[in-house]
Design brief:
It contains eight helices and eight strands; from the N terminus they run ααββααβααββαββαβ. With 237 residues, the chain is of the alpha/beta class. The C terminus is likely disordered.
Length: 237
């Protein structure tokens, strides 16, 4: 589907992946949803071991449509705007954790399962992580992508699972690969929901000796604690 989607994007008149209007892959109004500042958006409750998560957009409406179009519908051209958004979150995360946004950092994408890659025809998180690194490099940041995680066992589909069930499903599912000792890492994914996936990824990296600075995602669901106890998005757009 990844190659087919990319071919269709080139051959057919494009409609916005967010709102469906004609005129391009992403209309200006929907693109603006990915252009805000990064903020810390932990889920509520946050699972143990979750790195401090930074996100730019709210996972709802057109934002959700765009991410799903990239992930499930093979619209790989969306990797560039999604990667730019992820770069914003990753640089904010690295700068906050290290005290210097120019600090060298490795973006470590949460790996898709081999079965998901075969079904989709691509690894969407890896694709946007690579786009984020390219975008960050344009600003002079010392950012690169490192594939330091791998699946050690199969997991069930996370859709529809509760936060507790997701944590149980993912426990021990990932492992660090290669020499990760002392590596300054920002974990990256497209979305944070319960935080179980990022918490498991952080556990695996820490067990290998990596220094997990934070996490960065494109979008966060409404399951977060904004410090005021409201659970509302407010100006988070």
């Amino acid at each position: 589907m990844g190659l087919l989607g990319a071919a269709l994007d080139l051959l057919l008149p494009q409609r916005c992946a967010g709102c469906g209007r004609a005129g391009g892959l992403l209309c200006p109004a929907c693109a603006a949803l990915f252009g805000g500042p990064a903020r810390v958006r932990p889920p509520r409750p946050a699972p143990p071991g979750l790195p401090r998560p930074w996100a730019v957009a709210a996972y709802t409406g057109a934002v959700r449509q765009v991410i799903v179009a990239h992930k499930e519908q093979g619209r790989t051209g969306l990797a560039r705007p999604l990667g730019s958004c992820l770069a914003t979150a990753a640089l904010a995360a690295a700068g906050d954790a290290a005290g210097d946004a120019a600090c060298p950092v490795l973006l470590v994408p949460v790996p898709s399962s081999p079965a998901s890659v075969r079904r989709r025809g691509h690894d969407p998180t890896l694709r946007i992580a690579l786009a984020a690194a390219r975008e960050a490099a344009r600003s002079g940041a010392a950012v690169s992508v490192a594939r330091m995680l791998a699946h050690r066992r199969r997991v069930a589909d996370q859709a529809g699972l509760t936060a507790v069930a997701r944590a149980a499903n993912l426990a021990g599912a990932l492992e660090a690969r290669g020499d990760v000792r002392g590596a300054p890492v920002v974990l990256v994914d497209d979305v944070i929901t319960t935080g179980a996936t990022l918490a498991e990824a952080a556990r695996a990296l820490r067990s290998g000796g990596a220094r997990v600075l934070a996490a960065a995602v494109v979008a966060a669901t409404r399951r977060y604690d904004d410090g005021a106890g409201t659970g509302e998005f407010g100006h988070f757009t």
